[in-house]
Design a protein that fits this description.
This protein starts with 11 loop residues before the first helix and ends with a strand. It is globular. It has a single domain, classed as TonB-dependent receptor, beta-barrel domain (Maltoporin, Chain A, Beta Barrel). The strands form 7 sheets. The protein has a 22-stranded antiparallel barrel. The protein contains 4 helices and 41 strands. With 727 residues, it is mostly beta strands.
Length: 727
């Protein structure tokens, strides 16, 4: 496949020009006070069905608004999505990029994230200050994304210029908390020109990171701009760009001790921190440009280009296994563990995508069709340094006593470069059988060309255990069709729906030395399937809003086995099936807002040949029951004051495959108070929040990665204070 596709290039000049424009504006205005909102009423770009309100779609979506992001002090997407009962952690380290699961399936950070509807890699730290909302599509997303894991699809929608010429935005936000974190952010927006044809939105943020976990200091920065140009009625060009930087000392997880689940530990301890530990560094440049053109007869044409450039210095002082007894799945019974010095410098990830769509309504006979035709071209390039350090430190660590060791930074393990190209054609149709009943259908054809090449060993003085692997080039090409169909009907203020869809995903063995001969290997394309039946309220004036859905998702089962003395092999073998029930309800009046979301999940593994003892077992790190609830009260005696309480509960989950070790369920309470007021005609919102009110110690999650059982402790009681001025 040729490497010279006509992709545009985003540059930092965009940001400089936009900053100059932003500085010329002078209007000042007030925004509405924040209010926590999780909604399914807004059109969700992640759905792929244009301006259809999310509550009318025949599948499950959640939209978390900017007001909610502000109220909870969201710094990363996991802070926001944890408000939804279908979302839990999946090897989600506090100082690393988010790794989440939806409906029990881990999202693939390379395929399951979108920004303005365009594919991005989430293998970086994505800031929240310039995000207007976050959209979550639950379940298989093949019709929306082509290649993706079946859990769901996340879309970031950036802040845009106000549409009203009379409105402008001047917000300053400062916060303190989560240990000794300090942040300041500015949000500016407005319109200018003879007829207000130009709009802008500028965001900048800085945070000094010093969280509750000791010895994990760092900092982060963000600069972002979004602009639009109304060329003429029906023609709009807009672009957005952001540059972010984050560096912070990494945090290692705990593990089982000789097959035993230890008591929850003090979450403030950075277990493997050493005097020579270096921070991980994440640099990201992301942007897009879009042309929207209204055509005759209500049709519209949209063409968009998105680009992302990531640079990562991935570093971690790493605890892994018990070498004393050659058990690399957990720590030793006495609390000791092997310490590794991991470094992979100057990792480069490039994503480009060009997509065009034409959408409109067409009357055929007695039926009205709402059609969308789409074409997209994507490439993802992972360019890694020739070698990485993944070295045993020769000094055992301990979970019980502090220790010091020496660095072992020599680069001895080859990396793997990956190249992926895809071309996608799609058609989506909503056929209105009547005023209340619609049939939905979609088909996406994905043509792909994916290759990986393992780098040559550059240090001939080191005897690598697998010298016959280089070069180890693999290539996959092919074409696959992804269908989807649904039906919905409205009756008495409710909507009932049913849908069935497929998804496709690529299975790749992680590029680490712990996988030995299997490292970096592409294992092929797998097809997932989802069936969902649901019922939800529609009437927006009701005080009570509710939803219910049952679903079944199946996919090929990926698992690791220890096939050698010190390495694992990843296999695609068997089927993983998740059956679940989602329930949610929100009730409100002038003073109260009450809400709850729950998910019951029955997950099983079947048809495994490599390890038949896992047949019938529950997948690891998948809670059987999740509850998210909230209560908020507006105090009539103190205008502008609202207080709230949130509860999060996650049920038991398997730590080991045979279920002999289970992670206990846990429940936390969070409290908050928000006060909207004015000083000298300057509107402001003051926030005081306490997370984990009872200061419980608990194990938050128990993922298995690289053949190793991990345990991550929940955060302790933390206090956060913030103020936002709307000038």
């Amino acid at each position: 496949m040729a490497n010279h596709s006509p992709f545009l290039k985003a540059t930092r000049v965009h940001a400089a020009v936009a900053l100059c424009i932003a500085s010329c504006a002078s209007a000042w205005a007030q925004q509405n006070p924040n209010e926590i909102t999780i909604t399914d009423k807004l059109p969700a770009r992640v759905s792929g069905f244009g301006d259809v309100p999310a509550q009318e779609l025949p599948f499950s979506t959640t939209t978390i608004t900017n007001a909610t992001l502000q109220d909870i002090g969201a710094r990363r997407v996991s802070d926001a999505l944890h408000l939804d009962a279908s979302v839990s952690d999946s090897y989600n380290s506090p100082a690393y990029w988010d790794i989440l699961s939806v409906r029990g399936f881990t999202l693939d950070n390379r395929y399951n994230y979108r920004r303005e509807g365009m594919p991005i890699s989430a293998e970086t730290m994505i800031p929240m200050e310039n995000k207007e909302r976050i959209e979550l599509l639950k379940g298989t997303s093949g019709i929306q994304a082509g290649t993706s894991s079946p859990g769901g699809l996340v879309n970031y929608v950036v802040k845009r210029a106000p549409t009203n010429a009379e409105q402008s935005i001047r917000n300053i936000t400062m916060s303190y908390g989560q240990g000794d974190n300090r942040s300041v952010a500015a949000d500016l927006g407005g319109r200018f020109g003879e007829v207000s044809e130009f709009g802008y939105r500028f965001n900048v943020a800085h945070e000094d990171l010093n969280p509750y976990i000791r010895n994990t200091k760092g900092h982060r920065d963000l600069v972002a701009i979004a602009m639009d140009w109304r060329l003429k009625p029906g023609t709009v060009i807009d672009f957005e760009f952001e540059q972010s930087h984050r560096e912070q000392i990494g945090i290692n997880g705990y593990s089982l001790l000789g097959g035993v689940l230890p008591a929850p530990v003090d979450p403030r301890i950075n277990l493997t921190r050493q005097p020579w530990s270096q921070p991980g560094v994440f640099d990201a440049m992301t942007g897009s440009v879009r042309l929207r053109q209204e055509l005759n007869a209500g049709w519209r044409w949209t063409t968009q280009y998105g680009t992302q450039r990531l640079k990562t210095d991935d570093r971690l002082t790493y605890g892994f296994g018990c070498g004393a007894i050659s058990d690399y799945s957990q720590y030793c019974a006495d609390g000791s563990f092997d310490l590794y010095d991991f470094r992979s410098e100057n990792e480069r990830r490039l994503t480009d995508a060009l997509q065009t769509e034409i959408a409109g309504k067409l009357q055929l006979g007695q039926l009205q069709h709402e059609l969308t035709f789409g074409f997209s071209r994507q490439r993802q390039l992972d360019r890694m340094p020739p070698m990485q350090s993944y070295n045993y430190n020769n000094t055992p660590g301990s979970v019980f006593t502090p220790f010091n060791s020496s660095a072992s930074p020599k680069y001895v393990t080859p990396n793997t470069n990956r190249s992926e190209y895809s071309t996608e054609l799609s058609i989506k149709d909503r056929v209105q059988l009547s005023d209340t009943t619609s049939v939905w259908a979609g088909l996406r054809n994905v043509s792909y060309n994916r290759s990986s090449v393992q780098n040559e060993h550059t240090d001939q003085t080191v005897q690598y255990p697998y010298p016959d692997l280089y070069p180890n080039a693999k290539q996959f090409t092919g074409s696959i069709n992804v269908p989807w169909v649904g039906v919905s009907t409205q009756v008495k203020g409710m909507m009932a729906y049913a849908s069935h869809g497929h998804g496709v995903e690529q299975f790749v063995t992680p590029n680490t030395a712990s996988y030995g001969p299997n490292a970096g290997t592409q294992l092929g394309i797998g097809r997932s399937r989802q069936t969902e039946v649901g019922l939800r309220s529609l009437a927006s004036k009701n005080q009570l809003e509710w939803n219910a859905a049952i679903f079944e998702i199946s996919r090929p089962y990926a698992h690791d086995l220890f096939d050698g003395p010190n390495y694992s092999t990843r296999y695609i073998d068997g089927t993983q099936t998740h059956q679940g029930l989602d329930l949610g309800a929100t009730w409100r009046n002038s003073a109260w807002k009450l809400g709850a979301q729950t998910q019951w999940l029955h997950a099983k593994i079947t048809d495994v040949q490599q390890s038949p003892d896992t047949v019938g077992a529950t997948p690891l790190n998948v809670p059987k029951f999740v509850l998210r609830g909230m209560a908020e009260y507006r105090h009539a005696s103190v205008p502008g004051l609202r207080t709230g309480l949130r509860i999060s509960h996650e049920g038991q989950r398997n730590v080991t495959e045979d279920g002999s070790v289970m992670l206990p369920s846990w429940t936390t309470l969070d409290a908050s108070a928000h006060y909207d007021t004015k000083f000298n005609n300057i509107a402001s919102t003051w926030t005081l929040a306490i997370d984990n009110l009872e200061d419980k110690r608990y194990w938050r999650e128990s993922p298995k990665q690289f053949g190793h059982y991990y345990l991550y402790p929940g955060a302790p009681r933390t206090i956060r204070a913030a103020v936002q001025f709307r000038l």
